[in-house]
Fold:
Amino acid sequence: MNNQIEWTSLGIFLERESQQIQSRLRLKQLQKNEFLLREGMLCQSMYFIQSGCVYEYTMGEVEERVTALYGPGEWCMNYSSFISQSPSQTSIKAYAATQVLELTLVEIHALIALSPVYLQLGKLLEGALHRSQYGDAAMNPTERYHQLLKDKPQLLQLFPLKMIASYLQIAPETLSRVRARF
Structure:
Protein backbone atom coordinates (compact mmCIF):
# COMPACT_ATOMS: atom_id res chain seq x y z
CA MET A 1 0.00 0.00 0.00
CA ASN A 2 1.34 3.43 -0.90
CA ASN A 3 2.12 5.49 2.20
CA GLN A 4 2.14 8.77 0.31
CA ILE A 5 -0.45 11.53 0.42
CA GLU A 6 -0.61 13.94 -2.50
CA TRP A 7 -0.10 17.11 -0.47
CA THR A 8 0.69 19.22 -3.52
CA SER A 9 -2.70 18.30 -5.03
CA LEU A 10 -4.36 20.08 -2.11
CA GLY A 11 -3.05 23.31 -3.59
CA ILE A 12 -1.52 24.34 -0.27
CA PHE A 13 2.04 22.98 -0.23
CA LEU A 14 5.01 22.88 -2.57
CA GLU A 15 6.92 19.64 -3.19
CA ARG A 16 9.57 20.36 -0.51
CA GLU A 17 6.93 21.15 2.10
CA SER A 18 4.96 18.06 1.13
CA GLN A 19 8.04 15.90 1.67
CA GLN A 20 8.59 17.45 5.11
CA ILE A 21 5.03 16.59 6.14
CA GLN A 22 5.29 13.10 4.67
CA SER A 23 8.45 12.41 6.68
CA ARG A 24 6.54 13.07 9.91
CA LEU A 25 3.64 10.70 9.26
CA ARG A 26 3.53 7.38 11.09
CA LEU A 27 1.82 4.30 9.67
CA LYS A 28 -0.59 2.64 12.06
CA GLN A 29 -2.47 -0.65 11.57
CA LEU A 30 -5.76 -1.21 13.39
CA GLN A 31 -7.71 -4.39 13.84
CA LYS A 32 -11.51 -4.38 13.82
CA ASN A 33 -12.84 -2.77 17.05
CA GLU A 34 -9.45 -1.26 17.96
CA PHE A 35 -9.63 2.32 19.22
CA LEU A 36 -7.93 5.38 17.76
CA LEU A 37 -9.39 7.45 20.61
CA ARG A 38 -11.38 6.62 23.72
CA GLU A 39 -13.88 8.92 25.38
CA GLY A 40 -12.13 10.94 28.10
CA MET A 41 -8.72 10.90 26.39
CA LEU A 42 -7.11 13.89 24.70
CA CYS A 43 -7.10 13.77 20.91
CA GLN A 44 -3.46 14.45 20.05
CA SER A 45 -3.34 13.21 16.46
CA MET A 46 -5.12 13.49 13.17
CA TYR A 47 -5.40 10.40 11.00
CA PHE A 48 -5.54 9.90 7.25
CA ILE A 49 -7.40 6.70 6.41
CA GLN A 50 -5.61 4.75 3.69
CA SER A 51 -7.76 1.65 3.83
CA GLY A 52 -10.58 0.35 5.96
CA CYS A 53 -12.99 2.53 7.90
CA VAL A 54 -13.56 4.01 11.35
CA TYR A 55 -16.49 5.54 13.15
CA GLU A 56 -16.90 8.08 15.93
CA TYR A 57 -19.58 7.61 18.55
CA THR A 58 -20.90 8.45 21.98
CA MET A 59 -22.29 5.82 24.28
CA GLY A 60 -26.04 6.12 24.81
CA GLU A 61 -27.98 4.39 27.56
CA VAL A 62 -28.22 1.18 25.57
CA GLU A 63 -26.10 1.48 22.43
CA GLU A 64 -23.57 3.53 20.51
CA ARG A 65 -24.81 6.72 18.83
CA VAL A 66 -22.73 7.26 15.70
CA THR A 67 -21.58 10.86 15.20
CA ALA A 68 -19.20 10.37 12.26
CA LEU A 69 -18.25 7.78 9.66
CA TYR A 70 -14.91 7.88 7.84
CA GLY A 71 -13.62 5.90 4.87
CA PRO A 72 -10.47 5.76 2.73
CA GLY A 73 -9.06 9.13 1.67
CA GLU A 74 -10.52 11.02 4.62
CA TRP A 75 -8.96 12.67 7.65
CA CYS A 76 -10.46 11.92 11.05
CA MET A 77 -10.05 13.16 14.60
CA ASN A 78 -12.16 14.52 17.42
CA TYR A 79 -11.92 18.15 16.36
CA SER A 80 -12.99 19.84 19.60
CA SER A 81 -10.65 17.72 21.74
CA PHE A 82 -7.80 18.21 19.26
CA ILE A 83 -8.16 22.02 19.15
CA SER A 84 -8.85 22.62 22.85
CA GLN A 85 -6.78 19.72 24.19
CA SER A 86 -9.66 18.82 26.47
CA PRO A 87 -11.00 15.30 27.08
CA SER A 88 -12.88 13.83 24.15
CA GLN A 89 -16.63 13.38 24.50
CA THR A 90 -16.54 10.63 21.85
CA SER A 91 -14.61 7.50 20.92
CA ILE A 92 -13.19 6.61 17.51
CA LYS A 93 -13.02 2.91 16.65
CA ALA A 94 -12.09 0.81 13.61
CA TYR A 95 -15.11 -0.88 12.05
CA ALA A 96 -12.85 -3.10 9.93
CA ALA A 97 -9.12 -3.74 9.63
CA THR A 98 -7.81 -0.26 8.90
CA GLN A 99 -4.54 1.39 7.91
CA VAL A 100 -4.04 5.05 8.83
CA LEU A 101 -1.27 7.61 8.63
CA GLU A 102 -0.95 9.52 11.89
CA LEU A 103 0.17 13.14 12.21
CA THR A 104 0.59 14.09 15.86
CA LEU A 105 0.09 17.51 17.36
CA VAL A 106 3.76 17.50 18.36
CA GLU A 107 4.76 16.97 14.71
CA ILE A 108 2.36 19.69 13.55
CA HIS A 109 3.96 22.13 16.01
CA ALA A 110 7.43 21.09 14.80
CA LEU A 111 6.38 21.79 11.21
CA ILE A 112 4.93 25.19 12.13
CA ALA A 113 8.22 26.03 13.87
CA LEU A 114 9.97 25.36 10.53
CA SER A 115 7.67 27.65 8.55
CA PRO A 116 4.37 29.47 9.04
CA VAL A 117 3.18 27.90 5.76
CA TYR A 118 2.30 24.81 7.84
CA LEU A 119 -0.44 26.78 9.54
CA GLN A 120 -2.33 25.82 6.37
CA LEU A 121 -2.71 22.34 7.85
CA GLY A 122 -5.79 23.89 9.45
CA LYS A 123 -7.56 23.47 6.10
CA LEU A 124 -7.35 19.73 6.62
CA LEU A 125 -9.00 20.09 10.01
CA GLU A 126 -12.01 21.73 8.41
CA GLY A 127 -12.91 18.41 6.81
CA ALA A 128 -13.38 16.90 10.23
CA LEU A 129 -16.01 19.52 11.02
CA HIS A 130 -18.50 18.07 8.52
CA ARG A 131 -19.34 15.16 10.76
CA SER A 132 -22.73 16.22 12.10
CA GLN A 133 -24.31 17.83 9.04
CA TYR A 134 -26.40 14.73 8.35
CA GLY A 135 -28.18 15.02 11.69
CA ASP A 136 -29.35 18.55 10.97
CA ALA A 137 -32.81 18.92 12.51
CA ALA A 138 -33.84 21.24 9.66
CA MET A 139 -33.47 18.35 7.18
CA ASN A 140 -36.01 15.55 6.94
CA PRO A 141 -34.80 11.91 6.73
CA THR A 142 -35.04 11.86 2.92
CA GLU A 143 -32.94 15.02 2.65
CA ARG A 144 -30.33 13.62 5.06
CA TYR A 145 -30.04 10.41 3.08
CA HIS A 146 -29.90 12.26 -0.23
CA GLN A 147 -27.13 14.53 1.13
CA LEU A 148 -25.16 11.49 2.27
CA LEU A 149 -25.57 9.86 -1.15
CA LYS A 150 -24.31 13.05 -2.78
CA ASP A 151 -21.36 13.66 -0.44
CA LYS A 152 -20.19 10.23 0.69
CA PRO A 153 -21.85 7.37 -1.21
CA GLN A 154 -18.93 5.06 -0.37
CA LEU A 155 -20.08 4.96 3.26
CA LEU A 156 -23.07 2.85 2.23
CA GLN A 157 -20.63 0.16 1.05
CA LEU A 158 -18.48 0.32 4.19
CA PHE A 159 -20.98 0.39 7.06
CA PRO A 160 -24.18 -1.50 7.92
CA LEU A 161 -27.53 0.28 7.59
CA LYS A 162 -28.00 0.38 11.36
CA MET A 163 -24.85 2.52 11.69
CA ILE A 164 -25.87 4.70 8.73
CA ALA A 165 -29.26 5.27 10.38
CA SER A 166 -27.60 6.21 13.68
CA TYR A 167 -25.32 8.63 11.82
CA LEU A 168 -28.30 10.21 10.08
CA GLN A 169 -30.14 10.30 13.42
CA ILE A 170 -33.10 8.35 12.12
CA ALA A 171 -34.58 4.96 13.00
CA PRO A 172 -33.38 1.99 10.91
CA GLU A 173 -36.97 1.41 9.78
CA THR A 174 -37.21 5.01 8.54
CA LEU A 175 -33.95 4.57 6.63
CA SER A 176 -35.35 1.41 5.00
CA ARG A 177 -38.45 3.32 3.84
CA VAL A 178 -36.33 6.22 2.53
CA ARG A 179 -34.00 3.84 0.68
CA ALA A 180 -36.96 2.08 -0.92
CA ARG A 181 -37.91 5.38 -2.60
CA PHE A 182 -34.51 5.77 -4.27
